[in-house]
Design a protein that fits this description.
The chain is an all-beta fold and 127 residues long. Helices cover 0% and strands 50% of the residues. Strands 2, 4, 5, 6, 9, 10 and 11 form a seven-stranded mixed sheet that branches. Strands 1-3-8-7 form a four-stranded antiparallel sheet, with no helix packed on it.
Length: 127
């Protein structure tokens, strides 16, 4: 059974940091590209960042560039999203998702391309 389990969310003050984890099981982790998405109350789910399998190419949406860092530990089948300098507008439920394959560009990094999804973890940033 394919599973993606997010953890690490919580309440943090503006300017603080959190590290989210996405633990994967049930598929060959090395062959899948992973994305992080978020959904704020009343808004559509949006992409945050993606990392391609094999080549490790990363993509960040403009609003998080320079603040968030995506990394992968293939030995642990886990992807991490380090979030620094958090802002109230980062408040959302964060989801990780997976799609088979590796990519040189970021065209795979979107909601409709992803095949597997986790349940999400809530990040709340207070002002």
């Amino acid at each position: 059974e394919v599973q993606l389990v997010e953890s690490g969310g919580g309440l943090v003050q503006a300017g603080g940091s959190l590290r989210l984890s996405c633990a994967a099981s049930g598929f060959t982790f090395d062959d899948y590209s992973i994305g992080w998405f978020r959904q704020a109350p009343g808004k559509e789910r949006e992409v945050v960042s993606c990392i391609s399998a094999r080549n490790g190419n990363t993509y960040y949406t403009h609003s998080v560039k320079g603040r968030f860092t995506l990394s992968s530990d293939n030995a642990k089948n886990t992807v991490y999203l380090q979030m620094n300098s958090l802002k109230p507008e980062d408040t959302a439920v964060y989801f990780c998702a997976a799609v088979w394959g590796y990519y040189s560009g970021n065209y795979y990094c979107n909601y409709s391309s992803m095949k597997y999804w986790g349940e999400g973890t809530l990040v709340t940033v207070s002002s």
